[in-house]
Predict the 3D structure of the following.
Amino acid sequence: MRAGSKALGLVAAGCVLGSALGQGSECTASTDASFDYQVIAEDGFTVYWTVDTAAEEVTMQVVYDGEGFVGLGFSSTGAMVPADAVVGLPDEGTALEYDLSTYALSSDNEHETQEISGASVTQADSTTTLVFTRPLSPADDSKTVLSAEEGEKATFIWAYGSSNTFQYHEARGDFTVSDLLCSEVVEEEDDDSEGDDAADAADAEAAAENCASSDPDFEYEVAPHEDLALFWSVVGTSVSVKAVYQGEGYLSIGFSDSGSMPGSDAVIGLPDEATALEYDMDSYGTPEEAADQEISNATITQVDGVTTLTFVRLLEPAGDGKQILSVSEPTAWLYAWGGSNTFQEHSTRGAVSLTLDSCTVGDAGGGGTSTEYAHGWLMALGWTLCFPAGIMYARFSSSFKDIGFPAHRLLQSLGSVFVIIGFFCAVAFTEDFGLDHFSNTHGKAGLVLTIFVMLQVLAAVFRPSKPPAGAVIQDANGQAKPAPVSKVRQAWTLLHRGLGYITVTWAVFQCLGGIDLLEVDDVWWALYIFLVIAVITAFVVLQTLAYCRSKRDEPVDYSRPRSQAGSVPASTGTRRPYPQPATATRMEY
């Protein structure tokens, strides 16, 4: 599949080129001398055109005051399906015709017949411009026919993105003009007399129209993800919902007051079992079927690689713990799907805020509360920065001279404080969500690691003592020799070090699991992995330096005879003991 057609699949799946009913827009005389007419679809997005009745074609220019892909489509109804569109992709430098005949866009959607001419997409001074000339009556009968006759309405659908490649966005809409020749031309006037209330009402009406459903069985439609379309209608005391995923796998739609999964409830469809049931999302673990199944008309189907979940849900369910949906206030809707038709870790998830009666779409927040973020930061700093740095100060003490042990003690103490505070943050937000403590793998592993930290602190405080400096004992021959370290101290040292290395390594995977649960942006993944790589690099460098130093300071034994002819014969005297260099790679503490 070509890059352009792949990108268009994201447009269609996101319903970014259309809504169900076109809204009227004023057609005015063009402010660009190269064109006759214009419509300002929204602030910063203007469509210009000129009709050549002799050549039976229309030349169009789309100007977007920003940088991103731009699309202009032609539809007889204002809906995205069926329609055709010209889409400009600045990074690829292409402006091509695309077929919007279906939502199941698994094949090449570039039109086989490219009938536009003079097509280009350019960017200059943070402005994107799409230009093309299109026949009024294309030879391909699947394309929309435009008429230059007076009184023949023309409906356009439009969209633009925040980047030069396709991704989901809310910048889309449609407009209808009385006819292409703008027989009712309105000259532009500088009239700002319209009141704020009227403007707000118009904005609300436009918002509702811009996400009107392309499915006649539903009132509204949004695309929170490039591969997912959500449809709904409020019917009395219930909401009728349809979710269409452009792929195969289980599909879940949930409802939350915070945008987070814990404490929410969801409808999950399992295609292999042909079941669509309500589940309690009490934790980040595997959900359990709700005791009260209050949804109706629930189905999960798969056709031509597309998974569809439908159900009718009460706005105010009777079951405990279920989210009450307000018609006029925003509610966080959660979505997720997996790579298979049975339960496993979801491959994609997200959240969107929806106001049911006005189709107001916003950010659902999610990604964790401030207490969850505090927990994550404290654990990452303690486990991935303080503890590893403290270990390195102890292991490579000769590289740090007299500050080795004091730095070790300070960093381990600071890391312990971070971890313990982070632990209580986790207890606090779990309590706030009304969830069971330590009910999932992440919580249980975190408890074990915190216990290990406290054991390490106690072990450091009550560690067995070493022999005093300079202490000696008499051997069997009456010779003085350094006092040996007790077996208890040796066992303590082995356990203390071993447990330290094990827990720090384990904690890296624990932190990665926590980042995954928070559902944060990829930049946080990258930042944490960078921190881990930096710590590992520092350890390797210090270990290499310590090894090189020990080799450099290793004494040469001159007592052995040389094998070469004429060499100095072996000494017959007693070998002089060489002093041991101060190159120990770790310290006893």
Notes: The radius of gyration is 35 Å. The domain at 3-185 is CATH 2.60.40.1210 (Immunoglobulin-like). The chain has three domains: 3-185, 220-362, 370-466+484-551.
